[in-house]
Specification:
By secondary structure, the chain is of the alpha/beta class. It is about 45% helix and about 20% strand.
Length: about 280
């Protein structure tokens, strides 16, 4: 055997060893990544911890003290099909992403609109529903308005909930108006009812339901939503297994028509109102 052949055989052996080592390392890395997944942690803990904030009719407190709403139904079915218990963790909306990132809960199921800014901090699932922004106005402080242009004035005061896509929509579509931001949904509504703001921007059906509930005080300047926003589950970054499970869960439940049926119940009927009011 020549020296050159000996060198080639040696190089081939080294490459083979390195290849086998790389394969073993890659396998170990995949196994470690799988074990670190939130999905595996939830299964081991036997509990899915869900972060959310109350928005009608996404999530509300019923008369008997239980949480009800579209997102509550979604979270319960998700946990049921994972074969685990569920724990709801109410959280203020403006602090909900930091709370997720620090591990206070496993997932946000709270009508969270998918936005590029939020996506820099969290991973989103595929959309499981879409919602739109609408406006409800006070008859005394903003009479006779019928368009965004009518409300886009320096004299217009707009009530929005802090940290929501309603805040962003108001900034984009009503840039000349004065925004008043509230941590609490009830406080933003009270400002509107008292006439201290001209209108409130929020996702439907809240504006519609407020106009129906207080017809002597409130009205809808426009009959249609002025945005359409994708809604997704939010989880911590670096978790492909959990994201894969959630995306496939959405595909299956969408194919059955279950998500649309629950959305229609909570957003297009009044059948649930007696349990919360």
């Amino acid at each position: 055997m020549t020296l050159w052949k000996t060198v080639n055989i040696g190089i081939a052996a080294v490459i083979m060893i390195l290849g086998l080592s790389s394969a073993v390392w890659a396998g170990d890395a995949r196994q470690a990544l799988s074990q670190d997944s939130t999905l595996e942690q939830v299964l081991k803990r036997n509990t899915l911890r869900v972060g959310f904030s109350t928005f009608k009719p996404w999530a509300m407190k019923s008369k008997n003290g239980e949480f009800v709403g579209f997102e509550i139904d979604v979270a319960k079915r998700l946990a049921d099909e994972m074969g685990v218990k569920i724990r709801f963790i109410p959280t203020k909306w403006d602090g909900i992403i930091p709370a997720l990132l620090t591990g206070k809960f496993d997932i946000i199921i709270g009508g969270m609109g998918i936005t590029p800014k939020r996506n820099l901090k969290v991973n989103f699932s595929d959309p499981y529903e879409f919602t739109g922004m609408s406006i409800v106005a006070n008859k005394d402080s903003a009479p006779g308005k019928t368009s965004l242009a009518d409300l886009n004035k320096a004299s217009t005061k707009v009530s929005v909930r802090l940290g929501t896509t309603a805040e962003k929509a108001a900034k984009n579509f009503l840039p000349k108006a004065e925004l008043l931001k509230f941590n609490d949904e009830a406080a933003s509504i009270q400002e509107l009812l008292n006439g201290r703001v001209s209108c409130l921007v929020a996702s439907n059906p809240l504006p519609e339901s407020l106009a129906k509930k207080y017809p002597e005080k409130l009205y809808l300047p426009m009959k249609e939503d002025f945005t359409k926003e994708p809604i997704g589950f939010a989880i911590r970054k670096g978790d492909p297994d959990f994201l894969n499970f959630l995306n496939n869960w959405i595909k299956v439940t969408n194919s059955e028509g279950w998500l649309d049926a629950r959305f229609d119940y909570w957003f297009k009927t009044d059948k649930w109102k007696s349990i919360v009011e």
